[in-house]
Fold:
Amino acid sequence: MGWPGLEAGGDALSSRSSLVLVAVGVAAFVVAFSSGAREANAYPQFQFSSGTQRCAQCHYAPAGFGLLTSWGRDEGADTISRGGDGAFLHGLWTPPAWLALGGDFRAAAIRNEAGSSGPPEVAVFPMQADGYARVGFGDSGISVYVAGGFRGTTRPGTGSDSMAAHLESVISREHYVMWKPSATGAYVRAGRFYAPYGLRVAEHIYYIRSVTGFNLYEETYNVSGGYLAEDWELHVTGFTPPPNSLPLPLRSTATGSGAAAYGERRFNSMAALALQARVSLNKDQTLIQGGAVGKLWLDRPRILFMGELDLQRRSTTGGNGSNQMVGYLGPTFFPVKGVMASLGLERYQEDLRISSTAHTAVDLQVNYFLWAHCEIILLGRYQMNGTGLADGPADSLGMLQLHYYL
Amino acid sequence: MSFLVGSAGVFLCFSAALSGCGSTADSRPEKWSYISPVIIQPSCATANCHSQLAERSGVVLDTVADGYQQLLSRHFVIPQNPDSSALVGLLRGAGNLRMPPDFPLPEADIQLIERWITNGAAWDGPGSKPAGTP
Structure:
């Protein structure tokens, strides 16, 4: 069995023609949007669809992720969920203006069939438990942000039920100092976080996160700066991984040092085009990446199209390397308040010279925001290798996820 | 209208690019210095698996040297004998679990690793051969 069209197209398309197609596509995007541009006033799916232009309107972080602002909490309740109070502790207690608190808690159940000779894997596990605190220092624009929690464990190892194993899973995924004096304008941030790059989807298993340097717990230590305007934003980051000599809660799975840049232009409060580049080096390889991100919101059918395409060059110390492609494309439909349904097509090709090294995935995800703070997520994912089963087994994953944010 | 036409063009080009490219002939080098960073590290040295952070089953694969040392010294790889190498069985899902459990490797990658083992599983990484390896 194969992905429709792959068998015929796999051999015919060379890597060069693929690059040309991408270039033409990006050019068409630029032409189309520049001709219709005008002044325009984290789930990336909420950009435009919730009436919000910038990630930083709902999140304290300049490019989204983590603790919600008071605006974001109101949006979470009034616009996104079917009801309730989005404030901290559901409004039972309001922290002072200089303090913001929050947390994310997720539990999940999966059924995964990866083509082994054994039965499908079934697991129920704690997925995320993170608390957040942000302290702002008056009108200076300076703030300190700290996140702390436990790493989730899909597949418990030997002895993982012991208290020592749980303590070993303590992690602070983010902690940083930031100068950001206003909602728009310049900012500087230093500490640990993900460098702004890509669509920044919540699902770390998507190829645009898992093989681009933004997999789970792959946060780096960064110095980052940028500028947020009404219809554009720019983020530039220098990064390095935490050394393995640091205590376990401060370590990550990142191994490369380098720099990343992400620039986004928004059009007519309904579309965005971003260009991005990243270089990462470690003692084994150099990874050079470049790509584009696009979004298009269609108001009447209530559909948001999102896409990301990255081309990567991995150069190894042995003088070899591979040119790679990573992509995501798909619509997200908002049929009624509180429901978001996404269909995604993903592609990761390890080496553009070899068609059988491709990974293709189709994802169907439904998010149900039944009440402020509460979310149920259903995910179905089907992955294929190369051009069909002859190139490797398929993997089917079903996941139920319960999410509560404080 | 140009907006919609342009958008449609983008998505068509995007889809065509995603639909696959390359040939069927595998000319990649059968070398650990290539296999580790291009195949093993992105697939196996992840958050809850064989990274320095998680060390699942005590196996760390997130550098060329560490991966070679672990696979050879713990006999996951038997040089010149891919059929007896546990690594190949794990990648093919011969037991209850296929590795990586949620990211099965293409057969072309497994065959490349087999060829490296058949050719002696030589060390060609930077620096000297890791201690404790045959």
About this structure: The CA atoms of residues 202 and 208 of chain A lie 11 Å apart.
